[in-house]
Design a protein that fits this description.
Blueprint: E1 2-5, H1 14-26, H2 40-43, H3 48-58, H4 61-66, H5 73-82, E2 86-91, H6 98-107, E3 115-117, H7 136-141, E4 146-149, E5 165-169, E6 184-187, H8 190-206
Parallel strand pairs: 1-2, 1-4, 2-3, 4-5, 5-6
This protein binds magnesium ion.
Magnesium ion binds at residues 6, 8-10, 150-151.
């Protein structure tokens, strides 16, 4: 099977860090549970200049390296790799963050997993004038059977894969979203993701 895994808030606890950073930089009182919009400028009520400073600080290499792993992520992924499945990490982080992101994966036992930076969220939403390693054309040539993603903004990038099973990692900002079809399922942990993948393998074996 070919597996797509998003980085932030799937592999690591980015939003919990951003809540702390917004408190430190702007005296924000927004809690993790109140992180209702995927748009962080809106969540933390930041103007353009504040948002730019926030994103630059939040993407410093030492910050990216320090993000806590979401429990179970690397052990489940390594189990899939050991069973000869292909796993790719497709992140919306810009190319400038690639090295630190690669180092984070390596430090968490995910040396074998390729990492691609792909503009899922629109450049205006992110660090300005960003570069990405994966073009839309190249991304569309990649075929996936199973995906782990937290952002509803990324769902349109699955529309060319009608049989893709998508685990939506449960986060406050995706609780109100309507899933595009019945192949999407909310998952609250990597153990749940692991179970859904095993079920997909059983279904595939039964066909
Ligand atoms: Mg994410």
């Amino acid at each position: 099977m070919n597996i797509y895994v998003d980085f932030d808030d799937c592999l690591c606890e980015s939003a919990r860090y951003y809540v702390r950073l917004a408190a430190e930089m702007f005296n924000s009182r927004v809690t993790y549970e109140e992180f209702r919009f995927f748009d962080m400028a809106k969540t933390f009520s930041l103007n353009e200049e504040q948002f730019d400073r926030f994103m630059i600080r939040g993407h410093a290499p030492e910050v990216l390296l320090s993000l806590e792993e979401t429990p179970g992520a690397s052990s489940v992924i390594n189990e899939w790799l050991a069973d000869s499945h292909q796993v790719s990490v497709i992140t919306g982080r810009p190319l400038v963050a690639w090295e630190a992101s690669r180092a984070w994966l390596d430090a968490h036992g995910l040396q074998q997993v390729p990492l691609f930076c792909f503009d899922k969220y629109g450049r205006d939403n992110f660090i300005k004038n960003s570069d990405f390693s994966l073009s839309l054309e190249d991304y569309r040539k990649m075929k996936f059977d199973f995906a782990v993603e937290d952002s509803p903004k990324a769902f349109p990038f699955f529309s060319h894969l009608p049989s893709l099973r998508v685990c939506v990692f449960d986060r406050p900002w995706n609780r109100d979203c309507v899933f595009p079809n019945e192949n999407y399922a909310r998952c609250r942990s990597w153990q749940e993701i692991r179970s859904r993948f095993s079920a997909l393998l059983r279904d595939a074996g039964a066909c």
